[in-house]
Amino acid sequence: MPDTSHTNSSATPPLLSRIGSGISSLIGRFWVVALVFGLVWYLVAGRAPTVELEDGRTAPDFTLESLEGTPVQLSDYRGRVVVLNLWATWCVTCKQQMPGFVEMQDEFESQGVQFIGLSVDTNGMEVVRAFIEEQMPVNYPIVNSPRVASQQYGTTRGVPRTYIIDRSGTIRYEHTGLLLPGDFRPVLQAVLQEGAVS
Predict the structure, then answer these.
(1) Which of 25, 32, 116, 181 could cysteine-pair with 100, CB 3.0–4.6 Å?
(2) How far is the C-alpha of 38 from the C-alpha of 46, rounded, in Å?
(3) pTM of this structure
């Protein structure tokens, strides 16, 4: 008598197996498409700051010595658009955005834009000077004062922090975090165009 205890009843029928594979493949493709779409959306819409200029306060004035030993007084730049960047030598993000600021100083200088770097390093100008000379040559004034940063601009640890100050000395835009040229250029152009109209 043949042994019927071992049959194919536990095996998955070929049709069901193919359907299961097809569903798994479809789900896998869906997640890849969703991931790619999400990444593109983040890059296009998520990172670029919205160009919404605010009627801010008058930028607090200061006079500090530059790396070259010359006084830098913020109010001396009235009539120009000033980009004031608070940064530190220990800040990785600050270092990442500085080449873009150098590029934009060259690009916008003839339109009346002046970048100024305000270091919040507590170890003084010698640390800043060594950093600039060794790693990051710049084409705009660099000054140092954690006191000015904290007492007048309200930050020493939350860097990089960037302010756009219009020709009349009013802060029109503030941003904490990385600003690359592609993100920052539309905001700077908006302030320049506004000044040109008035």
Answers:
(1) 181
(2) 10
(3) 0.73
Residue 120 neighbours by CB under 8 Å, 6+ apart = 86, 87, 88, 144, 145, 146, 149, 150, 155, 156, 157, 159
Residue 10: strand, helix, or coil? helix
Identify the top-confidence range among 77-86, 130-139, 157-166. 77-86
DSSP 124: -
pLDDT in tens, 77-87: 999 999 999 99
Q: How far apart are CA 116 and CA 74, in angstroms?
A: 9
- Give CA–CA dist 195/168, Å, rounded: 9
C-alpha separations of 189 from 85, 86, 180 in Å:
17, 21, 14
Do 93 and 160 contact (CB within 8 A), yes or no?
A: yes
Which residues in 88-125 are b (16+ Cβ under 10 Å) and which e? bbebeebbebbebbbebbeebeeeebbbbbbbbbeeeb
Residues 22-48: pLDDT tens digits?
666 656 565 544 444 444 444 444 444
Instruction: Please give the mean pLDDT across all residues of the chain.
Output: 83
Residue 157 near residue 176, CB atoms below 8 Å: no
